[in-house]
Predict the structure.
Amino acid sequence: MMRILFILSVFAALLPHSLLSQGKVDILAEEEVQEAEQKRLERREANNGKVKGYRIMVGFYGNRAEAEALRSEAAEYFESTYGVKMIYDEPNFKVYVGAFTSADEADEALVVIRKKFRGATRISDIIQRKTNSQK
């Protein structure tokens, strides 16, 4: 028995490593699954990479100057980490921090942001999907 194990281990050691680590994987899927995936990709392209996501709203003002002051303050703390954006949503100028693809990611940021802006809140929004270079 020991002799057989020895022979097998010698044989395995002599096999080129490339034979053991290379392989081809074919993914077989039903036609309906492939069609659904194709439609999903087409919708993503049609939306220019926009997806459902979340932002953290730190405040809003009807007055542009006040909203700009808030945006500047938020940028001082969070521009380099999350990014800051001011959007006019009639009749208010709203200041947001970050664009998150998951609720968990937004909630983690919310904990940090609330240390500076106690009234900050997570909202659902359509955001630009992050590309691999943005991650």
